[in-house]
């Protein structure tokens, strides 16, 4: 099994990645640090090749309702 974690290097994502890898599951971390922009889609198609499951643990840079909703609606097109 291969899992893509959007936000896989963050506080939650990194722990999830460690747990999945300990179970023998292949993990692809997806974030700006990995050259993947889930909002614009840059690098996303390549990162998702062969992926069985996507887990989104991203956090938004905006905390107002409109900004947060806009961010998550636009993530992982």
What does this 3D model show about the protein?
This protein has 77 residues and is an alpha/beta fold. It has one domain (2-74). It is 34% helix and 18% strand. The protein has helices spanning 11-22, 44-47, 65-74, and strands at residues 2-6, 26-30, 53-56. The chain has a 3-stranded parallel sheet, covered by helices on one side. The longest helix has 12 residues, at 11-22.
Shape verdict: globular
User: Distance between the terminal alpha carbons, to the nearest Å?
Assistant: 22 Å
* Helical content band: 25-40%
Main pleated sheet: 3 strands, parallel
Strand order of the largest sheet: 2-1-3
Radius of gyration: 12 Å
Class by alpha and beta content: alpha/beta
How many helical stretches? Answer: 3
Q: Mean of residue pLDDT?
A: 89
Q: Report the β-strand fraction as a percent range.
A: 15-25%
Q: SSE string, helix = H, strand = E?
A: EHEHEH
Number of domains: 1
Oligomer: single chain
Unreliable segments of 5+ consecutive residues: none
What is the number of strand segments?
3
């Amino acid at each position: 099994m291969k899992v893509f974690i959007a936000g896989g290097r963050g506080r939650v994502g990194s722990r999830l990645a460690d747990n999945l890898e300990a179970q023998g599951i292949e993990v692809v971390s997806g974030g700006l640090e990995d050259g993947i922009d889930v909002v614009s889609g840059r690098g996303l198609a390549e990162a998702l090749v062969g992926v069985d499951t996507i887990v989104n643990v991203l956090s938004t840079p905006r905390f107002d309702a409109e900004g947060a909703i806009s961010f998550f609606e636009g993530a992982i097109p």
